[in-house]
Amino acid sequence: MIRKILTWSIFALIFAVSTGAVILVYSIFQGPPEIKLDENTVLYDQDGQVLSVEHGVQNRFWVELDDVSPYVIDAFIAAEDEHFYKHIGFDFKRIFSAIYHNVLAMEKRQGASTITQQYARNVFLTNQKTWERKINEALIALRLEIFQDKDDILEGYLNTIYFGHGQYGIQAASQYYFDKEASDLTLEESALLAAIPKGPSVYSPLTSLENATERQHWILERMHETGKITETTMTRAKQEELNFVAAASEQEPEVGKYFQDYAMDQASNILGIDRQAIDTQGYQIYTTINQDAQKKLEDTIKQELPEDSEELQIGAVTIDPRSSKIVAMQGGRDFDQTPYNRVTQAERMTGSTFKAFLYYAALVYGFTPSTLVESRETTFTLENDETYTPGNAGDFANRPVTLAQALAVSDNIYAIKTAMEIGPENIVEAARAFGIEADLKAVPSIAIGTGYLSPLEMTKAYSVLANQGWSVKPYVIEKIVDRDGNIVYQHQAETPKRLLEENHAFVLTHMLTGMFNDKFTDYMRATGANVAPIIQGHQYAGKSGSTDFDSWMIGFTPEYTTAVWTGYDDHREMTKVQDFRVSKQVWAKYMSQLHAGLPTQTFNVPTGVVGLKVDPISGKLEGPACEDRSVMMYYIKGTQPKEVCSE
């Protein structure tokens, strides 16, 4: 009998050793388990500050072990796996102890899962209580122990635990419950967070503070028993009152939602992956947004949009012309109501804002700021023998007016006559020089903006003027870093190309400052004179425009170009005067705030032009008869007026 028992014992030992060897060899040949977790994608502003966090069902930030408070590490090891750094993935002493006590109680009262086993279950398995799951858990735990060191396992564990309320990982939990980094957690906070994963629905302090506190105290006691803290420290930590914020960041209004959405679309195109997939891939996306500018834009829009015109929409965007960065963007009244981005997706009739391209062409074809054209009601006969009688926003001069004044007061007769003289096809060609790529019809009415363009494309074109005729290519993504810290995309600025002739570009730019100068007011008022008091202190150039369905204001300084459009999505007619005023009011108040505190910069005067005091009404040099109304005007050398005004 003894011999039989011995034989069977030897056989069992050989079988156990052989089985263990097979499992070990199998685990080695399987290699390390591949870990793929959803991880939040973070958008940053141009200063490296967090703009927003994009995530799927799981809110998770991966954080390295060195960036976790030591109290967190000690608390979890004391609570979950005292011998973590000593075992090989399985704590056999704990296993036998749990079996013993569970058998005595005839129910499961103790668990024996190590941190490694829990990590394996969190990442690769479900919580189903089946033998198949337990075997797989053991095999994965063994592979983790073979191919990863203890700190890597602990780091993975802390980043995959569920803390309730959709928060995964210690960093997300730390931010959610205490609004701080995981590295800054105190002893009492660490012990509280270590209490939650045992049962988030039971131990969340937001749903049951009593249960959470009771387990926190038990963990502090375990930390004392394992020699991690003194009794005095334990007692003090138990008495500390905790302040929960429950995702304080979510309580603040989110800034730049239209910008964020556009940036994510651009990132999707850059990376060549699905837009929704980016949210959970752990990317760090660095954008060009200036949060201060964006807040100013959003606040101004809220203040100026009339409450009794709830369906009136707005699109506004700001570009830094020297760097091509889009620094602010608002694509509508409210992103949550409609994510349709009117800056990038809507193409609207441009109205008189198109005259910038018209008059650049006119300058190229020999016009000067003093060129006179008769302004009176006129009926034009087109190539198909149809007649066309454009109107003005105000009166007709019924006399010749200068180009500088016609631009400042936005005279449509002057614009159409100029278009007929230089040819509509040359106006379209001029728009192409500004970088306009949209399909435009070469007809006389193009001069007063019957073409359709997006606010972003118009802002880009005006930014070319702000950039002294050099190319501008707007962008929103600076760089993209993957979850492993690799830079997978870095914006490369293109070498600027000269798009506009320098002297012509400056003369046009300076003429565009006239809309804010009441000295150009005569038969009609300078179109920006009413907002001129708002923008004192800096030199602005710009052009407003309107149709029956649209209202525009586009203007710039050397630092920023901003376009504001207002109208109705269904292209209904705008009948209220206040609806037409919104674009200018938003533009002026926002630009004034945006430039507050910045040093005053004027547009650089190239050597090929000359500045003279000129009467804007007659286009003649300043003289005694017009001294009180003369203004500084610029001409390409050799084209300046010679005659002095005498009446």
TrEMBL record:
MF-aspect GO terms: glycosyltransferase activity
Enzyme Commission number(s): 2.4.-.-
Keywords, in A-Z order: Carboxypeptidase, Cell membrane, Cell shape, Cell wall biogenesis/degradation, Glycosyltransferase, Hydrolase, Membrane, Multifunctional enzyme, Peptidoglycan synthesis, Protease, Transferase
Glycosyltransferase is among the record's keywords: yes
Protein's UniProt keywords contain Lyase: no
Main location: membrane
Domain Penicillin-binding protein transpeptidase, first and last residues per copy: 315-590
Coiled coil start-end: none
Gene3D superfamilies: Biosynthetic peptidoglycan transglycosylase-like, DD-peptidase/beta-lactamase superfamily
Domain (Glycosyl transferase family): residue spans on this chain: 50-224
SUPFAM superfamilies in UniProt: beta-lactamase/transpeptidase-like, Lysozyme-like
PANTHER family according to UniProt: BINDING PROTEIN TRANSPEPTIDASE, PUTATIVE-RELATED, PENICILLIN-BINDING PROTEIN 1B
Record's protein name: Transglycosylase domain-containing protein
Species whose genome carries this gene: Piscibacillus salipiscarius
